[in-house]
What we know:
The chain is α/β, with parallel strands linked by helices. The protein has a single domain, classed as Dehydroquinase, class II (Rossmann fold). The protein has helices at 19-22, 27-41, 53-65, 83-92, 130-144, and strands at 2-7, 44-49, 70-74, 96-100, 122-125. α2 (27-41) runs parallel beside α5 (130-144). 1,3,4-trihydroxy-5-OXO-cyclohexanecarboxylic acid (DQA) binds next to loops. Pathway: Metabolic intermediate biosynthesis; chorismate biosynthesis; chorismate from D-erythrose 4-phosphate and phosphoenolpyruvate: step 3/7.
Amino acid sequence: SRVLLLNGPNLNLLGTREPELYGAETLAEIEQRLLDQAKHLGISLECRQSNAEHQLIDWIHEARSTDIDFILINPGAYSHTSVAIRDALSGVAIPFIEIHLSNIHAREEFRHYSYLSDIATGVICGLGAQGYTFALQAAQRQLTS
Ligand code: DQA
């Protein structure tokens, strides 16, 4: 099966960006760990990051024509603002898990709401980079159940 990992705006800064909130690992390190995990699970994983909303939307659309079975997405701040990313995900009807490194519910009020959560298969937040690992594991179980 094929899984797509999407990371949204500012996640390219992981490792240096507010490490007390987001951890010391870089995105490249997280992606490499996930690629190794995917190999073990027999999953083909593609990893992408963009700071641009339209780029994330285009990749979500493309996922349908490239037969992606499952999407893992940390939409960054677009979680709290983007009806367009929500519409793209419902439009392609590919199941997805929403991931946040930090516990968005323990932070500013404006982070408590996500436009994606109610249409997600599941949401993982507050567990740092481990959240990506759990999400890939959950995706694999969903795909083989
Ligand atoms: C985040 C949480 C968002 O509120 C924030 O805008 C991010 C990262 C997280 O992974 O904790 O960019 O999605």
